[in-house]
Amino acid sequence: MAEISLDFKFRSRREKVWEALTDPDILSEWVMPNDFKPIVGHQCQFRNEEINLVVDSVVLAVEAPVRLSYTWVGGPLDTVVTWTLTEDEEWTVLHLDHTGFREEDMAYNGARYGWSDKIETLARILDQE
Description:
Elements: E1 2-10, H1 14-22, H2 24-30, E2 43-48, E3 53-63, E4 67-74, E5 77-87, E6 92-101, H3 106-128
Antiparallel strand pairs: 1-6, 2-3, 3-4, 4-5, 5-6
């Protein structure tokens, strides 16, 4: 099994980054339009109509403002996304584990690139506030 494990640093407070991970309106700005709710067991979808992509998700864990986990099932992917947040006096570190890939194939590389690209958008959103 292959796994994506990435760390991102932000100067924003952990609670602000948490809000960007859990508020469906903010998520729509940097991930995709969605009907997400940070409630364990909630079933939702992330949708990108431009490329006809629907990602089905079930929220697996919500430990505000430290850990969020949900399934990420769409196209060839049947995986799990887990975000973990830590902070010190200067930084909030957002750690991503995206697990469940069979191998380092096109889906894996696409997800790895996609998350890095989306995080750049998140950074711009956080910098505006």
